[in-house]
Amino acid sequence: MPYHLSEAGCPVNSASLLFNPTTYNPGHFDDETRELLASTIEWFETRGLRRLTEDFHRKVFYQEFLDFVAEKQLFAKFLTPEGQPGAVEGARWDTARVAALSEILGFYGLNYWYPWQVAVLGLGPVWQSDNPAARKTTALSLAEGEVAAFGLSEKEHGADVYSTSMRLTPTDEGYVANGGKYYIGNGNCARTVSVFGRIDHENDHEYVFFRADSTHPAFELIKNVVPSQMYVAEFRLNDYPVTEDDILHRGDDAFSAAMNTVNVGKFNLCFGGVGLCTHAFYEAITHASNRVLYGSAVTTMPHVRTQFIDSYARLLGMRLFSDRAIDYFRTASADDRRYLLYNAVTKMKVTTEAEAVIGGLADIVAAKGFEKDNYFTIAVNDVRGLPKLEGTVAVNLALINKFMPAYLFSPADLDEVPTRLEAANDDFLFRQGPARGLGKVRFHDWRPTYKAAAHIPNVAVFQEQIDTFASMLTESTPTKEQIGDMDFMLAVGQLFTFLVYGHLILEQAKIKGIDDVVVNQIFSTLVRDFSSGALDLYSKPLATDEQQKRMISAIRRPAAGDDSPIWEAITGLSGAYAMRP
Q1: 312 CB contacts (<8 Å, ≥6 apart)?
Q2: CA 126, CA 264: separation in Å to the nearest integer?
Q3: Average pLDDT of every residue of the chain
Q4: pLDDT tens-digit readout, 278-324
Q5: What string of H, E and C letters represents the secondary structure of 337-397?
Q6: Is the predicted pLDDT of residue 388 greater than 90, yes or no?
Q7: Do the beta carbons of residue 154 and residue 180 sit within 8 Å?
Q8: Which of 106, 237, 324, 519 pairs with 36 at a CA distance of 20 to 30 A?
Q9: Residues in a beta bridge with 479
Q10: How far apart are CA 13 and CA 233, in angstroms?
Q11: In whole angstroms, what is the distance from residue 10 CA to residue 564 CA?
Q12: Looking at residue 7, what is its pLDDT?
């Protein structure tokens, strides 16, 4: 399917990419999935905006939401693999519908998305385990409406699993666990807490994941570490008894389970961000369209129009990249691990784009964005957490860099990945294998996708930029000193990320039949971002004269074009959605 511009010159399908509770009808899902998603939307809409904002500002714990989850067996059905003993009827782990619920919960606020997100993480080590007793106990717990937690992070060590201070000591009955965990979502209420620690032997130690229960008397809940509706716990285990039925993983498998859980669970960050930004966008355009200053509607002001177009284009880019990444997750296998790169990009790039979208909209709505009865105030507060919920941007850029040589210079002949929306269990996500060998992952060639869209002006400009970047790496290759300098390599990784991000956006735009005018506007943001990144790399103290010349030559201005069709689509969203009061 070629990229195209509709005969009328208007962007088709762009506004329809945005979730709208009043028109949402995901026909590709089965009846039960549609009913559960609709029930979730109705639960929030019935409570209304006033209750949503009041609970946010009063920091009311979301127990009523968890009660709804239990009543509908929502998490049990969405987060239990198909065929698992003890599972409820209709359960399966289907990344497409997991992503859909992630977006809906993000749309109504990250305080409700968060217990879902950390439940996903808490279940990862369980479903990867070969322990049938722990798996069945967890499935039955979910069926009863309970949630899960991921006991990895520690106050002194963060997510540095190598330095865990959680210790298991052998006893006649098994082990006792002692140690603390910090920043553990759902740690106040989860019946399944997947805890990472180690067993110290005489001459070495063995990493271990085990299942704990927050209701056990040896589980000491210390406090909520954040001033929020979210409960992010600090807890300690004090001689907590652990039997073989509780052990999930040992040794290298425990380490891999931690990394592989992040591969699955942190993918939801992008959809939480898409939902959050979409709700904020509706509020912003409706407010601005009805706001008159100095005798004119705010939307007639050129700088406001420009900012709305930029935010809209970035939001559509987030949507297209994330939706296409779903297909790579669902098609993943031991021979196709491309999803690992795309996951890191969602954690780093999509979440920082969410910050850019909300930042731009905040400049438009100005003082309105501080009022206590708006959703926008919630969005501004919460969006900054998304890039920081899995390490930092730097952590993910360092991970992204591991894939760069193979992606840029060693393409493989791989089958085209189809759109994957069918009702099926994504089995491979819980048998990913050892968490190593990232440099050996192979990718399909990115060049044909860009070449097919080269008639789009800003895609062509961006192609020039990435060609210059690639030539710098081959003809002015980073030195050993530069490669060893994290600051320098993070700047390199930023530029590489733009290439990967644009690649999947183009793939999904082609699949969805998105018009050239929309794609062109999305790539206008990428051209500008790449130019900023090129200037950053140019400015690094370790950059050589030749590298600096190439980076200066990569700075481009986006191609000018008629953005009136985009603006027409944006203004058409005024009043398209408002949460029930």
Answers
A1: 281, 521, 566, 569, 570
A2: 13
A3: 93
A4: 999 999 999 999 988 888 888 999 999 999 999 999 999 999 999 99
A5: CCHHHHHHHHHHHHHHHHHHHHHHHHHHHHHHHHCCCCHHHHHHHHHCCHHHCCCCHHHHH
A6: no
A7: yes
A8: 324
A9: none
A10: 42
A11: 9
A12: 37
Strand partners, 209: 196, 249
**Strand 219-224 and strand 232-242: pairing?**
antiparallel
Would you mind telling me the total number of residues written for the chain in this entry? 581
Q: pLDDT tens-digit profile of 13-68?
A: 688 999 999 999 999 999 999 999 999 999 999 999 999 999 999 999 999 999 99
On whether the CB atoms of residues 470 and 408 are closer than 8 A, the answer is yes
- Encoded amino acid at 157, one letter: H
What span, in angstroms and rounded, lies between the C-alpha atoms of 461 and 467? 10
- What percent of the chain is modeled with pLDDT above 90? 86
Tokens 């699955």: give the residue: 264
CA distance 360 to 571: 16
Handedness of CA 530, 535, 536, 540 (dihedral sign): positive
| Residue 180 in tokens | 């603390």
The CA distance from 124 to 400, in Å, is: 22
What tens digit of pLDDT does each residue of 314-360 get? 999 999 999 999 999 999 999 999 999 999 999 899 999 999 999 99
Q: How far apart are CA 356 and CA 522, in angstroms?
A: 13
Specify whether the CB–CB gap between 332 and 339 falls below 8 A.
yes
Hey, what long-range contacts does 354-358 have (CB within 8 A, 24 or more apart)? 354/273, 354/274, 354/276, 354/277, 354/318, 354/383, 354/386, 355/383, 355/384, 355/386, 355/387, 356/311, 356/314, 357/277, 357/280, 357/281, 357/311, 357/314, 357/315, 357/318, 358/276, 358/277, 358/280, 358/383
18-54 exposure pattern, b = at least 16 Cβ within 10 A, e = fewer: bbebeeeeeeebeeebbebbeebbebbeebebeebbe
Q: Scanning the structure block, which residue is given the tokens 């140690």?
A: 179
| Structural tokens at position 542 | 């370790």
Measured CA to CA, the distance from residue 170 to residue 242 in angstroms comes to 9
What per-residue confidence (pLDDT) applies to 295? Answer: 85
The per-residue b/e assignment along 411-444, b for 16 or more CB within 10 angstroms, e otherwise, is eeeeeebeebbeeebbebbbebeebeebeebbbb
Q: Which of 117, 162, 121, 152 is nearest to 385 (CA)?
A: 117
Burial zone of 332 (CB within 10 Å; 0-12 exposed, 13-18 middle, 19+ buried): buried
Q: How far apart are CA 20 and CA 126, in angstroms?
A: 34
pTM of the model: 0.95
Burial class (CB in 10 A: 0-12, 13-18, 19+), 538: middle
